[in-house]
């Protein structure tokens, strides 16, 4: 850095520190300033700006007062202990990769964001233990990097998200789902151990054997009880290749019957991934997630549907090793024979396992090149009980959505018995439930149906419809406005959730961006006695 740059940097830092002093009081700032971390704090405007918005782009960005780039769990713990022990405890949020929709990883103006995914501070590399079939990873690690590392040993995690540029701590705070969840459960069902920094600044190791309540509470716990600094993820031998198949249906009943049949299979002969999506307009079959269909050979709905009405696409894969390439055709044929799709609508491709798992990133790069990635995303993800999925189809896919959707609409079923009841994640009270993911992008210069207000209003109508029709949906990646709604969201789990908050984050320091515990009134809760807050 030359002298001019150094002095302007120092000046900016000085102004940021002054702002901090005014906002949180000189004693708190002095305490932050004196926290001895191996990583570093930054007050630089560009760093504050970079953590102040998220993938959703639905809220005006609110810059925090400081960002911590930690190098260890102890760095995170030192910051939290400072907040916990101070007179006006300030909010602290872990930020994984900022892929939330509604500011869940933000703290507002008085907080400190812990930037978990920051390689430069020397956070630990993934450590694979091939004999024990697990990998230990830093909480801010991206799944794509976990995959790269484990593949060096011919191993891979079992349960995925569709997109890999998400952090381990971020998806484990929700659930982490994709087409493997029907068999392996969500990502939170495939964790063996965690290290967590609680809202009191304690570093706690937890697992099925040790601090069990905290272990299950943190999984799907929306960041409320602790910051995950390490996760031990279960592995399996990685397949080398994937046969990826899409088939179409015009009947929702037949489509869901086939999906439900496929997720009931758990033996050797089964598909490894079961998803699906809804096609209400022709553009969508060739949508951004469909790197599958070649742009030079777009699929014409009219070629498979006579009346242009809603179609449903089942998406399945069969994993295999190169050495099994002669049996995979046979296995796929046997499995497909049981399905009742439109016979002329089979689309098949074959690719490397890693390319299949990383498929959405290719679409991201395309959208980025057209400036269509960094746009508002009013996404709505719902878990719908199996018993009401056909009512949902009639009311939403064939009703509220009209014939333009502005983005992919995923739909696939999962088995509830693959979810651990003791986790904080919330699912409908039925053996089988569906994910319906309305993944829309808003365009300011698009048609009326692509505008943000239109899409937000449509989301509201969908939720109102479910409410009126008494379809007991649960939001996935939930966003609720009032505590009453949160209580209803958690249902039977609320009391435990609330009491765990009181135990592990009594001053409501962590993940305030989720807005579960409203108006934390941090300063009203007295700081603990100095002995318990010291380090
Ligand atoms: P952030 O958005 O940074 O954080 C999310 C929440 O977790 C915040 O409250 C934050 O404070 C908290 N948090 C973050 N790190 C930690 C930590 N280490 N410890 C404790 N709390 C923490 N989800 C699926 O399940 N399946 C999918 O297929 C899927 N696909 C997606 C595709 C795209 C393009 C996008 C944008 C999102 C997708 N998601 C999917 C949603 C994703 O799981 C959530 O956005 C999730 O929040 C992870 O994102 P993140 O790592 O950026 O976390």
From TrEMBL:
Residues 1-23 form the signal peptide. Keywords: FAD, Flavoprotein, Glycoprotein, Oxidoreductase, Signal. It comes from Eutrema salsugineum (Saltwater cress). Its cofactor is FAD. Its EC number is 1.5.99.12. It catalyses: N(6)-dimethylallyladenine + A + H2O = 3-methyl-2-butenal + adenine + AH2. InterPro entries: Cytok_DH_C_sf, Cytokinin_DH_FAD/cytokin-bd, FAD-bd_PCMH, FAD-bd_PCMH-like_sf, FAD-bd_PCMH_sub1, FAD-bd_PCMH_sub2, FAD-linked_Oxase-like_C, FAD-linked_Oxidoreductases_BP. One of its GO terms (molecular function) is cytokinin dehydrogenase activity. SUPFAM superfamilies: FAD-binding/transporter-associated domain-like (SSF56176), FAD-linked oxidases, C-terminal domain (SSF55103). This is cytokinin dehydrogenase. GO terms for biological process: cytokinin metabolic process. It is an enzyme of class 1 (oxidoreductase). Belongs to the oxygen-dependent FAD-linked oxidoreductase family.
